[in-house]
Each structure stands twice: as structure tokens, then as C-alpha cells.
Amino acid sequence: MPNRVLTRRVGARACAILGLLLAGAVVAGAAGATEDSARNQLAQKDCVRGKFKDYHLQGTGGDPAASYKGRVFRLSQDYPNQIPPREDFPWAKIPFKDGGPVDPEAYLRALLAYGLEGNVDVDFYVEDNKIRKWYGMPWMDWNTEVASDWPGTDGREFVHGFTHEFDSSGNTLSTLQHDFVDTWSGAYLNDRAAFGVGQVYCDPDNPKPGALNPDPAGLNDFPDGAFIIKLLFSTVTEDQLPIAKNALEWQAHVFVNDDPSWRNKGPASRFERALGPIRLIQIDVSVRDERSLTGWLLGTFGYDGNAKGATPWERMVPFGLQWGNNPKVTFAQTCAGPDGPCDRSKLTEQWINEEAAENLTRAPLNFNHLGFGGRLAGPVDNAKASCMGCHQTAGFPTVPILPEFSANGAVLKLDAGKRPATDQSFRMMYYGNVPSGVVFSDSQLQSSDYSLQLSMSLQNYASRRCGDQSEPSSAPAPEICGQLLA
Ligand code: HEC
User: Fold this and answer.
1) What is the rounded distance in angstroms from the CA atom of residue 215 to the CA atom of residue 462?
2) Which of 174, 333, 440, 470 could cross-link to 393 by cystine, CB 3.0-4.6 Å?
3) What is the CA angle 422-427-432, rounded to 5?
4) What's the whole-model pTM score?
5) In whole angstroms, how far apart are CA 261 and each of 156, 255, 403?
6) Which band of pLDDT confidence, cut at 50, 70 and 90, is reported for residue 359?
7) Do 179 and 261 contact (CB within 8 A), yes or no?
8) Where are the domains of the chain?
9) Where does the secretion signal sit in this chain (predicted)?
10) CB 202 within 8 A of CB 185
11) Cα–Cα distance, 82 to 36 (Å, whole number)
12) What residues line ligand 1, using a CB cutoff of 6 Å?
């Protein structure tokens, strides 16, 4: 384990634990993991449920018109107060070697099968799943991800509860895509993940970011077996992206104008929404598995209309799986120049479906890159990012998820003279292997353990309940407001 790197990043609580670990205990990914029994014993049990809004501006002008006869999204928020017992997870049968699965493709496919089981039949209105319970993240109805000057406008729409994410500018997906297309997505948590979220939000008016693991002696992590699946839809059409043919198409309440540069200039009326079609082009999965080098594995599937399979779900092609960032492998060691080509053989902490990767570069597809230096990222993701690079930053408060978003590193309390564009060490910090439950930056109080929805949820909460912009509330000021000030 890279202790040097680790000590630089951990916060006060984690430091104490690290001290214990270094004092002789085993230093490994799974060290210090809290047993289910301890989590259950220390869990808060008198939690208040059912208080979170379902969608953007619910009850305050955002409700469906009376003429809308379709189904309306309800947040599945009856989080369990005790950890549901570990199932016989299909991925758990696949052995690990050196912190990664020996058969990554089989592992990745097992994750998708689990995430789809019982959810496809009910169009991901997951509360109807007949096989197992699934849940959603609170506070995504008021979400600020893309339009920072227009707080909340990325919040859940009312048909499927999808949030608006970073859009793809012209030419990102194919040379036939000339204009912006918008991304809308939804994430669903299994019961073991939902237990952690339910502990953080046990008191809906006073969330505790550090209660993800109820045991204060353990790292602030999700329990082993926590799993999240995310569906990414795009407003892209088959004309703009030929492999999107026969993709799964749903109606959602999305922006009338697809161009974020136009919308962001305001006024707020530019964020007008209406029912319109969106198509499923990517599925992401993440799982907490203590056998992994970092404690997590993240994987992705891309839609290919030419692939075999009777349904759009079956035409989702496994693209790659990541369990570490190979922190020591620099850009120059893998890529010949800014536009490649990149030799990914040094990146041993991931698996890429080479055939799928090659298909994506075939004209008119324009996806000639993965993430930074050949690390795994999805087609709608930023080419300078990687799945684990972005996700390891998850924590409270939030920090920039990419070096580009941090003007000079000040937010991360790094040397202000360091520039992300030129400083290799600064950028490589984003491709470290932060262990599960450990904070990324010294400016963070708690880790959100690789869940960016959890860290954004807390941020969204704070933006509405702390400070000048707060909505009126009769509840006393939440503790996290004071923590943010301090
Ligand atoms: C540029 C940064 C970035 C990259 C790269 C990225 N993600 Fe994410 N991801 C996010 C953000 C931000 C969210 C939370 C917002 C949302 O879901 O609406 C998120 C949410 C998710 C979720 C929902 C669970 C959660 O709370 O984190 C999953 C699963 C996920 N991503 C998997 C992946 C996978 C797999 C990859 C690589 C193929 C990936 N992500 C690449 C930023 C990123």
C-alpha cells in the first residue's frame, strides 16, 4: 500500500486508524473492515423515513401537468436500519489475484446481470422489483452538477427520476453529431448500499456524513457487497450516432433546448423542460468488494445496435472494468502523444474489451480515446478522467472531480503554484488508489466511499439548508452547516 501517498490524503479520523494499522496490524485493502454485526449493533435504529422529495420542484411548480397520464417517479427511500444479510452474490464466486478478478469479463457480466434482474421487467421503477429491494439517493431532486449558476436545475425529472449530467459537445460521440446532446441518468442502490445511505440520512433534517459506517472505529465505508447500477441516457439520435439504432427509448421530462452554453446564460426560463425521447447508451456499475486492491470495482457497458441480442439490454457490450488506477504509470509511459496511440499493457489494474474499444474508433464513431493515458472511462465521460479517478474524490465536502475543475489547486489545499495542465504530480494525484473509506483531500471531513451521488446529495442538502440561499425550514440548523463553516 502506498503509505506515503496515503498519509498525505487522510483526514483526522482516518489518520488515527492509519496509525493503528501501521503500528503492526495487517496493512491491506481489507484491513480494518467492519463486520456486519458491529455495523448493526452500532446502527441508529429510530430513523425517520419517507421525507425526501421525489423530483425537481415537487409541490412548488415542478409537478406534471394535469394532462399527463403516465407514471410519476417515486424515490424508493425506505432504507433498511439493519444490514440485509449478504446474498450469494454471483460475482463473489470469481476468484481474485493481486487485487483484481482472474476473469474480469465474467465478473463484469455478473454485475450487470444482478443489476438488471427484476428491474428490467418494471422499467427500473425499482420499488416494484419482485426479486430484491432497490433504493435511490436522497436530495438528487435539487441537483447542481452542470449549471452551477442555476442551482438545482439538474435535479431529477418526474418520469424516471433522472438527473441531468455533463452534456456531450458536437463530435464527441461521432462525426455526425454536430450539436450538443444531453445526458440524463439514474442510479439504483442495492440493500447493502442503501443501509449506509440510510444511516447518513437517519435524521432527514440532520444528515451525518460520517455515519456511512456506523462504527466510528472503522473507516467511513459502505459494507462489502454494496452495489450501485447507473443507467445513462442521451438525447442523441440514430442520425447522429448510427450504433444507437434500436436503442431503448424512454420518454422523460428533459430540457427543451439541448445546448448548455445557451441555457447557462439564463434566465432560468431557458431551463424549460418538456416530455421528449432519450436513449440508453451506457450502463455503469460499481461494487464494494473487499478483495479489490482499492475495495471497489467500477465497470461499464456501451450500447451497440449492431451487437447480437434480442433486446436493447442484451445489446449492451461490456467495455471495461477498473479496480485501480496504476498510480505510477504516467501519461508518457502509455501514450505516444496527446491523441495517442496509447499502449494500455502497463495498466494492469483494469480490463478493457479491446474489440469493443476498437469498434468505437471506426468511422463515423469518434470515440478514439478512453480516459487519461488509456485508463477506463465511458463514452460520455471526460477523456482526461477515469472511472476510479473521479470516484475516489467522493467525500464531504465535495472537491473538484478533475484537476481541470480546480483553478490552481487551492481548493485541494495543494501548492497554489501547481497547475493541472503542466504539473505531472498534481494530475497524477487524481490517478492514485485511494482506499475505500479514506478521504481524497485534506479539505474533506469524511469520505463518501467512491459514491459521487452521496457526496453530491450532501452538497445539495447543504446548499438548501445552510446559508443565505436556504429554503424556509422549521427544523433546527443541521450540524453539517457548522462543519462546513469550520
Ligand atoms: C468526470 C468524472 C466521472 C467519471 C470519469 C466517471 N464518473 Fe461515475 N459519476 C460521476 C458523478 C459526478 C456521479 C454522480 C452524479 C449522478 O449520478 O448523477 C457519478 C455516478 C456514478 C454512479 C452512481 C453511484 C455513485 O454514487 O457514484 C456509478 C455506478 C458510476 N458513476 C460509475 C462510473 C463508471 C463505471 C465510470 C467509468 C466508466 C464512471 N462512473 C466514470 C462522475 C464520474
Assistant:
1) 24
2) 440
3) 160
4) 0.91
5) 20, 13, 21
6) confident
7) no
8) 3-485
9) 1-30
10) no
11) 9
12) 163, 165, 185, 187, 228, 230, 284-286, 298-300, 376-378, 381-382, 385-387, 390-391, 401-402, 451-454, 456
